[in-house]
User: Fold this.
Amino acid sequence: VTPPGQFCYLNGQPGDNSNQTFLTNLYRELFGRDPDSAGFQFWLNALQNNNVSRTDVVNAFLHSQEYESHWVDCLFDEFLGRHADEGAENFFVKALNNGATEQSLILAILTSPEYFGHAGPGGQGRQEDDDNQGDREPHGHGPASGNTNEAFVDNLYSDLLGRAADPTSEQAWVNALNSGQMTRTQVAQAFLNSSE
Assistant:
């Protein structure tokens, strides 16, 4: 299991079009780990015997319990700075299996009281292990304390757009929230739908 604040997915290897590299990359990029020998050999044999196509293997990985559990854990790590507890992981995986979209589950996290309670980037909310030393340092770079619309907007900019909010846009979003013109769900959905 990847510690919180670490990368959830590992980079694949340069492609040489071999089934071995293809499988290794799937394990690394979708499960965040190197392949286990039994699973690797199973899929390699299936590919080499033309029992399955590469598309079949990708679909099997993407619809596996391991992928879904790993994806949920990474979602919690990315937005809440912690691993999903067993109950939350089971709930989210069940939701995926019952047809919920990944975007709807991201929205659920972004509109949760826990996410709202995080300090803005640079505040003292979420902690990250940016230097991979096992210590958790403050996330981001801004001043807003948690449980404020300003911190919520700042976190959306940082987490979804990968940048700090410009003052004019930040104020427009905060004003829309403060006035009741928009809900946090509507703002988070707008960020998720952004072309940026």
Observations:
- DSSP finds ten helices and two strands in the chain.
